[in-house]
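User: Hi! I have a protein structure encoded as tokens and I'd like to know what sequence might fold into it. I'm fairly new to this, so please keep things simple.
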């Protein structure tokens, strides 16, 4: 039994050491770094997509276009959400890669959880993601959980809020200045 426990601990430690994450430098009303642990064991295809786009620099300069107080901050529209461009269509685009099929799990949408944005079709996630300001358990089993904030939740909490029911950010939205994949 002792050997089994030692082997299990070694596997868990190795898995944690090789874990993939993101480091997001945020600028605007919120300024600072957000670190995210990506859950490749829960949503491997979504983690692959996010890390591929981050490594390509596709997320650099993308704004938080939909921010609803008490709910979440959404970003990641690499097609229409680039800072300095016409943001009127931000939230309607994605990458030039195919959509990713849903990878639903039993993990709850609590504060700091990162989920993949999608349309009405559960298999339509592409590049956009959101970070929870508070729990949103009505999303459980409906959206893919892809990660969780491990540092900088105060930065997330300071992101400029949008207005109206859809949380559209007016004026100058906060931006992901640089997104880096970490190991």
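Assistant: Happy to help. Inverse folding works backwards from shape to sequence: for each of the 183 positions I chose a residue that suits the local structure. Here it is:
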């Amino acid at each position: 039994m002792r050997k089994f426990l030692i082997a299990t601990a070694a596997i868990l430690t190795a898995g944690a050491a090789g874990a993939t994450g993101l480091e997001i430098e945020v600028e605007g009303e919120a300024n600072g770094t957000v670190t995210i642990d990506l859950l490749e064991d829960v949503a491997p295809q979504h983690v692959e997509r996010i890390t591929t786009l981050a490594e390509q620099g596709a997320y650099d300069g993308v704004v938080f276009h939909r921010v609803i107080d008490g709910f979440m901050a959404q970003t990641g529209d690499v097609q229409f959400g680039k800072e300095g461009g016409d943001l009127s269509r931000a939230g309607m685009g994605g990458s030039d890669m195919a959509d990713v099929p849903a990878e639903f799990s039993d993990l709850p949408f609590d504060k700091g959880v990162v989920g993949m944005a999608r349309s009405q079709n559960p298999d339509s996630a592409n590049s956009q993601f959101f970070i929870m300001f508070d729990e949103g358990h009505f999303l459980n089993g409906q959206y893919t959980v892809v990660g969780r904030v491990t540092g900088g939740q105060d930065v997330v909490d300071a992101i400029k809020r949008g207005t109206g029911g859809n949380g559209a950010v007016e004026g100058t939205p906060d931006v992901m200045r640089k997104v880096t994949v970490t190991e």
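A useful reference point when you look it over: Strands lie at 21-27, 32-38, 62-63, 66-68, 72-75, 113-116, 129-132, 145-151, 175-182. Feel free to ask if any position seems puzzling.
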